[in-house]
Design goal:
The complex is a heterodimer of chains A (191) and B (227).
Chain A (H helix, E strand, L loop, with lengths): L6 H17 L2 H21 L4 H18 L10 H18 L22 H4 L2 H13 L3 H12 L4 H8 L3 H18 L6
Helix pairs in contact in A: 1-2, 2-3, 3-4, 6-9, 7-9, 8-9
Chain B lengths: L8 H9 L4 H11 L3 H20 L13 H8 L26 H7 L9 E2 L4 E7 L9 E6 L8 E2 L4 E7 L1 E3 L4 E3 L3 E4 L8 E2 L5 E7 L4 E2 L4 H7 L3
Antiparallel strand pairs in B: 1-2, 2-3, 3-10, 4-11, 5-8, 5-10, 6-7, 6-9
Helix pairs in contact in B: 1-3
Classes of the chains: A mainly alpha (191), B alpha+beta (227).
Amino acid sequence: MVGVMVEDERAALAGHLRAVAERRDKAAFAALFAFYAPRVKGYLIRQGCQPAQAEDLAQEVMAAVWRKAGLYDPAKAEASTWVFTIARNLRIDAIRRERYPQVELDDGARELPDDRPAADDVVSTGQRARLVQRAIATLPPDQAEVIRQSFFQDKAHTAIAEDLGLPLGTVKSRMRLAMIKIRAALGEQEP
Amino acid sequence: MSVTHHPSDAVLVAYGAGSLGEGLALVVAGHLAFCPRCRDRIASIEAVGGALLEEIEPQAPEAAMDPGALDAMLARLDTLPADVPLPPPAAPVGLKLDFDVPPALRASLATPGADTAWRMAGPGVRQLVLHRPRHVGGPTAMLMRIAPGRKMPVHGHRGVEMTLVLDGGFSDEIGHFVAGDVAEVDPDTDHTPVADRGRDCICLVAVDAPIEFRGPILGPLQRLFGR
């Protein structure tokens, strides 16, 4: 595992994204490309993409970063989380040729009763990445394994259970325990 | 009325990771329109995705981009089309939808391959297939409309099955489900939803493996579902 990122580096990435959104800043984009393109390509390779396809898709992801930068809201997610969701959706489009149903989380289509704590009562997004990374690093190996398989091997819990020769209930409870720890690290309340 | 039945963490993780099949993903996306709690959970799961992306070793040989990739990209940035959000797709002409359709589902209704009309699927039950996978027969997502007091047709499923209530309500062995609630049923578990009295119950039903109907009305249903 790579050493934990320093906060400055994360803040710089968010700053570059803002510079792309506000000023179409190509130097900032080049910095984002240097950081994200190889990581996205590595992610796609782990998911089973062929190298040429991973290269093309990673470029498509970066093109989407350029085009959509104005939609990035630093109050809602880390830059890396935002890039991850773009890579995830393009991968699904390209590889499965199935559209991934998405909700615009703020589409305002419904007036929702919302008694959640305000975001700044929980943790700021700046802290979020560090807390999540630490929580993942301290998960028991069996819980970390099912989480990593979900993200890197295109396997839902049912396929993971088959693969590991475990009852579905065991895999589900590992996922649940892992997410309880991650949510606790983020200061979220379990209902 | 508020949502009390949610998808499991395992399903939410699969959705956030992008490893959930399209049928089940449609149920989760529909549920999120009703449920701030699960939207928060998805945000945390996507943050895990972001953290795992950061951890990928950029110097690894397989991760290295082609040497000219950045220059090629910089050269074409100005020609990239602006990101203009697409207008929500219209539902098929003539399809009557007398309930509140979550945005994620609206897109699905307009997908080629989705049915364009309700069909009878047994006494008091109508269905509308939303999604059939490309390579295997049988739908993985459909709307079902169940008349007051009627049972959903008996069916088995090899994988996980999820049912999202869109309008009305039903009861099964687990409890009572209203709009926004999700019943998640693991393989080999039978459940028999019975619609509430008073109004139709409209649900989105999805599976991760194509649905198989059994019981006395097996034949006609299998034909309806195109298997």
